[in-house]
Amino acid sequence: MVLLPVLVAGCEPPADSPVADSEPAIAVGPWRAEVEHFGRTLPFNFELVAGPDGLQAFYLNGPERMPVEQVLTDGAGGLTLNFPSYASGLSARVDGEQMRGEISLKRRDEINRLPFRATRGETWRFFPEPATTYADFSGRWEVEIYVPAFDFRQPAIASFTQDGPYVGGTVWTQVGDYRYLYGEARDNALYLSTFDGSGTQLWLAELDADGQLSGSFDSVTYKRAEWTAQRNPDFQLEDPTALTYLQDGYDEVRFTFPDLDGAPVTLPGPRFDNKVVLVILGGSWCSTCHDEAQFLVPFLASRRDRGLEALYLMFEYSPDFADSRAQLLAYRDRYAIEHPILFVGDSSRETRAEKLPMLNDVIAFPTTIFIDRRGKVRRIHTAFPGPATGQEHENYKREFTAFVDLLLDERA
Q1: Residues 273-311: tens digit of each pLDDT
Q2: Using an 8 Å Cβ cutoff, are 168 and 158 in contact?
Q3: Is residue 306 located within the same domain as residue 347?
Q4: Domain match, 397 and 274 both
Q5: Distance CA 95, CA 258 (A)
Q6: Which member of 49, 226, 386, 409 lies 3.0 to 4.6 Å from 291 by CB, making a disulfide possible if both were Cys?
Q7: In 10 A of CB 242, how many CB atoms?
Q8: Using an 8 Å Cβ cutoff, are 13 and 304 in contact?
Q9: How far is CA 165 from CA 46, 58, 196, in A?
Q10: What is the structure's pLDDT at 4?
Q11: pLDDT classification of 10: cutoffs 50, 70, 90
Q12: 245 lies in some domain
């Protein structure tokens, strides 16, 4: 997912090798963790590796091997795994083959602290031995998510693949996907979880005799939600290009916001004259914005000489620029973003409406505004289908590329 080096497997030290210059040594290799998650146990897997510049760490969720941005040790068994671009982290005390600590995850003005413990050498997820009997959960499912705390229902799509009892995939809604979920099937029950530095998720469900899935969905964001699903290979969500649009009386997007040095940047402006401009509405807290950045940064570089520009409008948890700047700088540096990153304010609906009054609504981050060489808005796309969505992700990248190239080929 991220533009960080991944150590080649053949260069890794033996699993029982300690990390150099650490007293007591922190053993590398696979670890299995259990999080105390709102009254339930959420498992996840990670790996510690002795890299050329010190200890490296990777969170493992099915096919994803997520590099941790910052790994710190204190020489006395203390371990910290940080994601400055999310303002989140994991801190622990290591005692031989055991580890105890807490995960801290920021959500608006709240820091969620979840205790966990981990054991080295264990690679299983939910069960130490794979099930011998299990239902088939593969395929595309029509989903409804219900959040009791907000009395809110949301349609979604789930897509799962299965290899024996092992199940992977994701769930996505009109406002984005839940990234890589991974777990197991056992009899008629489905167990999925994820931890990737940005958030925790635990999806549990039972398959009934009529082929319907029913269960719970626990996350730091919602705490506890419910979900039901029925197989439906033809189910689609609403057209993501029809949800946000220019209101009557507006024919272009205009704004002035400060960049990360505090200097005002204005659109329209000389830098953007006769350019195709992508305006990306996002937030450093938004995991699918991170997925989009991984795709977008090399794409922008490949078409810069043809006249492609971009502006990132960031809506953060805090309305205060000073509070948000460090996290935004970490986000910029994580993906080597070269285009202007502008601070707009907090991510509330009130701020979105106030700062971008020309739009009817902004329902999701990221949202991408496509502006042609004449300064006219040609498309507004809500959300970004991340790599966990599989074919949806590939289709979007292909359509995105074709549309941007069409705009670049046009004359002003």
Answers
A1: 999 999 999 999 999 999 999 999 999 999 999 999 999
A2: no
A3: yes
A4: yes
A5: 47
A6: 386
A7: 10
A8: no
A9: 21, 24, 22
A10: 32
A11: very low
A12: no
